[in-house]
Write a structure and sequence with these properties.
Layout lengths: L1 H15 L4 H30 L3 H18 L7 H21 L4 H18 L12 H24 L3 H17 L2 H6 L6 H8 L1
Length: 200
């Protein structure tokens, strides 16, 4: 199904304009990413309806995506691995968000660990996309900390347990995603820009 979508899309694009070999590789990569994102979103959307967690799903998607926008983080090596991790983490997380109340002390611990994680580990790049420009890494770190701080202020002023839980759970997800120990457990290289610099 994915292969058919990519090939038919490429045929359509090529009918409109000329595409060289390098451009075709980039298009394939982009189309594959779009297909994976679209199918996972549809499946999780349907599961969220089944578990009556649609609101939590949308809020978690927004909050986690903004934290990941500049914090980045690891990606699974294959699409199948991504399915087996993303779906249960999202759907299980939405159920947890809806029916659980985080105690005050636990919330403080999560915020503290989250801030330290962003301070020391963000932005966390991948082997496929090393963040080789120092200024861009510094900018990404500052922006990721600003977004995290904005959510802290938001959760303080908006006394809504669902929003509070969504923010805390998204921080947990992103803190895990940028942690070098998790990279090591999954046998993935961390701070890939250093490798790039030593080989250039």
């Amino acid at each position: 199904m994915k292969k058919k979508f990519i090939e038919s899309s490429l045929v359509l694009i090529k009918s409109k304009k000329s595409v060289d070999e390098l451009s075709e590789k980039k298009l394939r990569y982009g189309l594959e990413g779009f297909y994976n994102l679209a199918t996972k979103t549809i499946v999780m959307f349907l599961l969220s309806i089944c578990f009556d967690t649609l609101l939590e799903f949308f809020l978690l998607t927004i909050v986690y995506s903004t934290l990941r926008l500049y914090g980045f983080g690891l990606h699974m090596k294959t699409s199948l691995q991504c399915w087996f991790t993303t779906v249960p983490i999202y759907i299980g997380g939405c159920i947890l968000i809806k029916y659980t109340i985080f105690p005050y002390l636990l919330s403080v611990i999560i915020w503290t660990i989250g801030f330290l994680s962003f301070l020391f580990f963000a932005p966390a790049d991948t082997h496929a996309r090393p963040l080789i420009h120092k200024k861009k890494r510094i900018r990404a770190k500052i922006l990721s900390l600003c977004i995290l701080s904005s959510y802290f202020v938001l959760s303080f002023f908006i006394q809504n347990p669902v929003i509070h839980n969504v923010i805390l759970y998204a921080i947990i997800m992103e803190s895990i995603s940028i942690n070098p120990l998790v990279y090591r457990l999954l046998n993935m290289p961390f701070n890939n820009y250093k490798t790039y610099q030593t080989t250039v």
